[in-house]
Amino acid sequence: MGNLNVLYACDDNYAPYATVSICSLLENNKNFESVNIYAVLDKVSSDNVERMAKQIDLYHAIFIPVDAAPIVEEIMELGLPQYRNSYGTNFRLFFDRFIREDVKKLLYLDCDTIVCGDLTSFIEHSGGGMRLCSAGFADGQI
Question: How far apart are the two ends of the chain, measured CA to CA in Å?
Answer without folding.
Answer: 22
